[in-house]
Write the structure tokens for this entry.
Amino acid sequence: MRITKQAKREAKALYTACLVDGRLDEARVRMAVRELLARRPRGYPAVLQHFKHLVELDAARHTARIESAVALPADQRGALEANLARRYGAGLKLVFTENPALLGGLRVQVGSDVYDGSVRGRLDALAASF
């Protein structure tokens, strides 16, 4: 389904109405979706689809996915959390996972920002240079 410019504008307006102090308020999101479904204006499926996309992007911007080859000690987790909070602001949700395929190092993803300091990433970059 193609999303029209009008639907994108309405979804963006709905998204900004759900922001409280620059953060997305879950209660407002639910209320906005409920009201939109109750009114069912013309083109509402496209509005909902784009609104969902905007909410998913917001969630990704406030979630840090940290992959490491082995489990990180508590002190390293704390230091990493402090560094990420300084760069991206407080309220960042951290998700730690283990991925032995990395061989060593870390891979951090916050929204569309990816920081790959893993051995696997360096080996892949070296292989791509040949």
